[in-house]
């Protein structure tokens, strides 16, 4: 089969999964760095790919840092999922909304298995080290038995041409995971706030979400991350607590222009979040498009995400991993059923 014949195929790829590890000393503790990446050759304009690493279930490991090996010129974003089971038995599979239900497609995690996001990267964000004594517990006595890397390729221009045929053009985007086997008392977790909905043409829209903390667990926030596609102008997140008069006290957790490096930044407030507190997030979107823009997976769609990273003392993280609303026009902070007051309307959309 010659090159012209291959380019007429709707989908073609060759993928090699590699895994390697080495040890190094850091802060007088023993850590192991694990990198996993895949080499990709394909002819599809936009794609999500997933690949798993099985965790040794006989030991407990604590992930204490993430070191990305990628550039925004190639990878739009990367996510690390902690899964009870992977979404496919394949070494690599198509795991985005564009998968189309083929035999080689699926979600990052199994449909009935535990699933949570433990790390996210985009726009050339640097590495992340967790605070001293904090780690994501995986392996033994943890719902996380697999770590699944998802890479979103929004453009594949670098793969076009002849290089992919002889293996001279490839991608090794991935993440080095820093972990220790030393038991840590502070377990890390991530809560993802986001929305559905759509953005009208030629308009500024607020995409908002709200959730109640119903579990009797105290969490200590320490980092946040924002994510949108190209229409995002500001993403903000808050903890809401009623005072004795019934007035909502909005405490800023973080806000940022989402088109800057999408790393985890230190939170504005480290105050603990408790049962009956509420968490809220807003994405301010500006569209100059003449069409409706929906929330979706492709680069032509939009996303509204606020990630909150936290730890708990001597306990397990929240069972709640996601907090999503229907978004506009169905859901807004100002809806009567939210019973919100003292909404910081201007501050939530401006630095």
TrEMBL record:
Its EC number is 1.14.17.3. Residues 44-159 form the Copper type II ascorbate-dependent monooxygenase N-terminal domain. PANTHER family: PEPTIDYL-GLYCINE ALPHA-AMIDATING MONOOXYGENASE (PTHR10680). Belongs to the copper type II ascorbate-dependent monooxygenase family. Its cofactor is Cu(2+). GO terms for molecular function: copper ion binding; peptidylglycine monooxygenase activity. The keyword RNA-binding does not apply. Its main location: secreted. One of its GO terms (cellular component) is extracellular region. It comes from Anopheles minimus. It is an enzyme of class 1 (oxidoreductase). SUPFAM superfamilies: PHM/PNGase F (SSF49742). This is peptidylglycine monooxygenase. It comes from the Eukaryota. Residues 186-335 form the Copper type II ascorbate-dependent monooxygenase C-terminal domain. It holds the Pfam family Cu2_monooxygen. It catalyses: a [peptide]-C-terminal glycine + 2 L-ascorbate + O2 = a [peptide]-C-terminal (2S)-2-hydroxyglycine + 2 monodehydro-L-ascorbate radical + H2O. It is found in: Secreted. Keywords: Copper, Disulfide bond, Glycoprotein, Metal-binding, Monooxygenase, Oxidoreductase, Secreted, Signal.
